[in-house]
Amino acid sequence: MAPLGNGDEKIAPLSSSTHFRYLGLWISMDLDWSKQVQVLNKEVMDWRWKAFAAEVDCAQLRSSVVEYLLPRMEIGLMHANITKKMCDAWTSTIITTICYRGGMSTVGTLNKKAFLLLADIPDIWMRTQTTRAW
Fold first, then answer.
1. Is the residue at 15 inside a domain?
2. How many folded domains does the chain comprise?
3. CA gap 126, 91 in Å, rounded
4. What is the value of pTM for the model shown?
5. 3-state SS string over the chain?
6. Mean pLDDT by 10 residues, the chain (134 residues)
């Protein structure tokens, strides 16, 4: 409850599990990162949806991952409790999207680490670990 301006209303405290956004990061006083994980997942899925909807070229998709998607995810990856499994799932989504848009039918047998290296796309998990080390 916020005051109406006349100062007669009391401000009711919120519970410690309430999520709030601070400097671009969704956090709670309980350090529950579920909202931040949802936001990061939504970033990847929205990127994927836009790639298919706009029929973006695979070379442009690679650029959009490095210049748009990963920088938007950076603060969440740095601070939230993100697991390797989550990062691997996001990486697979990115690779599958790029391969599908590029007409590559062998995405199932593709070595993901080699693809990332050759496409010069950072591995999300390794980037997370490197960023946290700073």
1. no
2. 1
3. 11
4. 0.83
5. CCCCCCCCCCCCCCCCCCCEEECCEEECCCCCCHHHHHHHHHHHHHHHHHHHHCCCCHHHHHHHHHHHHHHHHHHHHHHCCCCHHHHHHHHHHHHHHHHHHCCCCCHHHCCHHHHHHHHCCCCHHHHHHHHHHC
6. 65 89 91 94 97 94 96 93 95 95 86 94 92 75
Q: What's at 108, amino acid-wise?
A: G
In whole angstroms, what is the distance from residue 131 CA to residue 134 CA? 6
Q: Is residue 43 within 8 Å of 86, Cβ to Cβ?
A: no
Give the Cα separation of 49 and 70 in Å (integer): 16
Domain that holds residue 119: 20-133
Candidates 77, 73, 121; CA nearest to 97 is 121
Domain contains 110 = yes
